[in-house]
């Protein structure tokens, strides 16, 4: 990485000088104070031993960390516990059975404006988890068997995950928006014995079927010699399953097997390293990686970070994470973290704009949500719609806002804090990954003076660093690769069935130093605070200058006519790579005017410098995104390099690429 360019790009990022001090009320009563950093640094294992005490162990560990066989870690060696007991039963036993665990909000709304909703207390959750655990056992699921969960955002998804955890059957949740093919490859990879699904779910006001995809996936896997033994089907939409849509030898209704099962179930304590779940995530090759998380360390990490980063006060807070259960965020910060902490939370089934654009804000108002956790892509789309929509709702209950999934542009951060948080709320920009299992880099709401766009520093007990090619920490004011220098409890243990790929992907780049390579580029500013720049494969090299896609996107989004922007580096005969930008205009900007492209190029030039000026700016109606909201730059690169557009199967909406191409053909 060239010194000169990092300085140049950094200097531009650092034009952002707003700082937001923690509000006094939050700082004073914060769960975590500044001393925690030093305490953890002095004795990391002692610190993580203390954090593990927040769980109930039926047998305590003998050793906090066994790193002798690095990079294969063992945490809380010899300890035994049950994750579901920790998330449910112990709260009931402590007299908190009447506390609402989940305010579930369905998408459909009746003519009176009432949502199809359900409040589930911890006692009720215990009852359902026990029944489901008994039902799964009855269906032949044994400790160690894999169970796939392919469900919409309904309470049964949480119940199913916890029921699996309770009987020691690792679950693999496959996002309900994934295709039959994607489901089949995951079922095969982890050899799932049972699939839990539903007839369908509600999205954008209409029922959308799920069960047929399971049938199709089952046919595919059986052709490859893998047999799914049972499919448990939750009735959600009541839609017709069609001819041949039910196989008596395999399919059973959830309500038939779960409702009739006993609500008594004694949880077995499992080894701390017992597999809890496998979560598939995309890697650099076509084959998804099954990230394996185990029990004791993962639950400790999820619980501690949820409590620390969101400053959770379980008695008074109402927490809401908008992530789908099909992603790691839904695992750590909708299921395991919040429930281990005895939180009360909202779970919402549908889309943010159904039946109206203010749906999320109405939920915050109705349930008096105090902590809200979402993704920058959502925030930008709300910015695009304009503040009039959220302004109609009373969101004064909010006290902390969180962001996850990609770097948050300073503009989006400030809008989020200002419009949604009423300028009272700290914004915690949390960096982590499916692989890390828990938040690693984030401000702490009662300690950190936040900088818009920066994830700031690693949380207590975590050691993140930015290093150069040689694995040496870069000085403040420079950029490099983001690494984690010490093991942490919720770290992935391996890639399911592929230890070699696990080593290669994460541990070979800085093998000598023993660092975990995150695959992200980052910079340290003059204060040593970390700015995550995005995947290193998203970093462009233009005339030998390193440029971050995120940085240019932020510059574009800071223009008043721009709603959203995606930038890719396209091959260029002269400069190696050239900056190509795809821009969605704000609704009130109309078509932007004749000179819009010139205006935007000029703007980037001004914001970042001539080197960042896009070679091409294309005004488009939509951007191609995965179902988790990540922009698929690979496809945009195909457009920018005039290639045939590649595989679009993981797009949330596969027609988006057609829209983009049509717009470009008609010269818009
Ligand atoms: C990106 C999601 C910047 C990053 C929890 C990482 C972020 C990848 C942030 C992991 C953030 C996530 N700032 N970038 N706050 N959070 N990322 O596995 O590139 O879906 O490597 O986990 O998302 O995505 P994953």
From TrEMBL:
EC number: 6.2.1.1
Post-translational modification: Acetylated. Deacetylation by the SIR2-homolog deacetylase activates the enzyme.
Gene3D superfamilies reported for this sequence: 3.30.300.30, N-terminal domain of ligase-like
GO biological process assignments: acetyl-CoA biosynthetic process from acetate
Binding site for ATP: 405-407, 429-434, 520, 535, 546
Every AMP-dependent synthetase/ligase domain range: 94-488
Residues binding Mg(2+): 557, 559, 562
Occurrences of domain Acetyl-coenzyme A synthetase N-terminal (ranges): 35-87
Cofactor(s) recorded in Swiss-Prot or TrEMBL: Mg(2+)
Assigned keywords, A-Z: Acetylation, ATP-binding, Ligase, Magnesium, Metal-binding, Nucleotide-binding
GO molecular function: acetate-CoA ligase activity; AMP binding; ATP binding; metal ion binding
AMP-binding enzyme C-terminal domain: residues covered: 551-630
Catalytic activity: acetate + ATP + CoA = acetyl-CoA + AMP + diphosphate
Positions annotated to bind CoA: 203-206, 329, 543, 605
Keyword Transmembrane helix: no
A GO term from the CC aspect: cytosol
Function: Catalyzes the conversion of acetate into acetyl-CoA (AcCoA), an essential intermediate at the junction of anabolic and catabolic pathways. AcsA undergoes a two-step reaction. In the first half reaction, AcsA combines acetate with ATP to form acetyl-adenylate (AcAMP) intermediate. In the second half reaction, it can then transfer the acetyl group from AcAMP to the sulfhydryl group of CoA, forming the product AcCoA.
Family named by the database record: Belongs to the ATP-dependent AMP-binding enzyme family.
Protein name: Acetyl-coenzyme A synthetase
Organism whose genome encodes this protein: Nocardioides soli
Gene name in the database record: acsA
């Amino acid at each position: 990485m060239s010194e000169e360019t990092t300085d140049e790009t950094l200097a531009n990022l650092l034009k952002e000088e707003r700082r937001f001090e923690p509000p006094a009320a939050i700082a004073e009563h914060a769960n975590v104070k500044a001393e925690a950093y030093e305490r953890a640094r002095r004795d990391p294992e002692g610190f993580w031993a203390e954090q593990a005490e927040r769980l109930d162990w039926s047998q305590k560990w003998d050793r906090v960390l066994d790193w002798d066989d690095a990079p294969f870690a063992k945490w809380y060696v010899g300890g035994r516990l049950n994750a579901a007991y920790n998330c449910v039963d112990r709260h009931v036993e402590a007299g908190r059975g009447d506390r609402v665990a989940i305010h579930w909000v369905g998408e459909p709304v009746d003519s009176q404006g009432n949502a199809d909703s359900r409040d589930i207390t911890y006692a009720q959750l215990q009852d359902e988890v026990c029944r489901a655990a008994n039902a799964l056992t009855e269906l032949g699921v044994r400790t160690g068997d894999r169970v796939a969960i392919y469900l919409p955002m309904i309470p049964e998804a949480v119940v199913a995950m916890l029921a699996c955890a309770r009987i020691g059957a690792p679950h693999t949740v496959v996002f309900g928006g994934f295709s039959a093919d994607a489901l089949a490859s995951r079922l095969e990879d982890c050899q799932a014995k049972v699939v839990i699904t539903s007839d369908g779910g509600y999205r954008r006001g209409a029922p959308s079927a799920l069960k047929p995809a399971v049938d199709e996936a089952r046919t595919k896997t059986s052709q490859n010699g893998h047999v799914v033994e049972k499919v448990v089907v939750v009735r959600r939409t009541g839609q017709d399953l069609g001819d041949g849509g039910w196989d008596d030898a395999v399919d059973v209704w959830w309500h038939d097997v779960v409702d009739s099962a006993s609500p008594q179930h004694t949880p077995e304590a499992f080894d701390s390293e017992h597999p809890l779940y496998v979560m598939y995530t995309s890697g650099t090759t076509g084959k998804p990686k099954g990230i394996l998380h185990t029990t004791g360390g993962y639950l400790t990490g999820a619980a501690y970070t949820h409590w620390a980063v969101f400053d959770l006060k379980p008695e008074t807070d109402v927490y809401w994470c908008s992530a789908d259960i099909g992603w790691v965020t839904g695992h750590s910060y909708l299921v395991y973290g919040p429930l281990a902490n005895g939180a009360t939370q909202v779970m919402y089934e549908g889309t943010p704009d159904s039946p109206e654009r203010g749906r999320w804000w109405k939920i915050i108002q109705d349930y008096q949500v105090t902590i809200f956790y979402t993704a920058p892509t959502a925030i930008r789309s709300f910015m695009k719609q304009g503040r009039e929509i959220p302004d109609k709702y009373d969101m004064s209950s909010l006290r902390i806002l969180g962001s996850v999934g990609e770097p948050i542009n300073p503009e989006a951060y400030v809008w989020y804090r200002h419009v949604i948080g009423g300028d009272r709320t700290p914004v915690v920009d949390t960096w982590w990954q499916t692989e890390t299992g828990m938040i690693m880099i984030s401000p702490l709401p009662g300690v950190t003076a936040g900088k818009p766009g920066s994830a700031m520093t690693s949380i207590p007990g975590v050691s993140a660093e930015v290093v150069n090619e040689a694995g040496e920490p870069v000085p403040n004011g420079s950029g490099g690769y983001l690494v984690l220098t010490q093991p942490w409890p919720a770290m992935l243990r391996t890639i399911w069935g592929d230890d070699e790929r696990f080593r290669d992907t994460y541990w070979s780049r800085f093998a000598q130093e023993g660092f975990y390579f995150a695959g992200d580029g980052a910079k340290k500013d003059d204060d040593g605070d970390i700015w995550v720049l995005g995947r290193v494969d998203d970093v462009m090299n233009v005339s030998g200058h390193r440029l971050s896609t995120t940085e240019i996107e932020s510059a574009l989004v800071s223009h008043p006519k721009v709603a959203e922007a995606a930038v890719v580096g396209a091959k260029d005969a002269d400069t190696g790579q050239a900056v190509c930008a795809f821009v969605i205009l704000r609704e009130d900007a109309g078509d932007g005017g004749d000179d819009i492209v010139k205006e935007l190029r000029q703007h980037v030039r001004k914001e970042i410098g001539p080197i960042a000026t896009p070679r091409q700016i294309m005004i488009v109606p939509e951007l191609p995104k995965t179902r988790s909201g990540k922009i698929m730059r690979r496809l945009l690169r195909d457009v920018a390099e005039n290639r045939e557009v590649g595989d679009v199967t993981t797009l949330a909406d596969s027609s988006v690429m057609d829209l983009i191409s049509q717009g470009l053909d008609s010269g818009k």
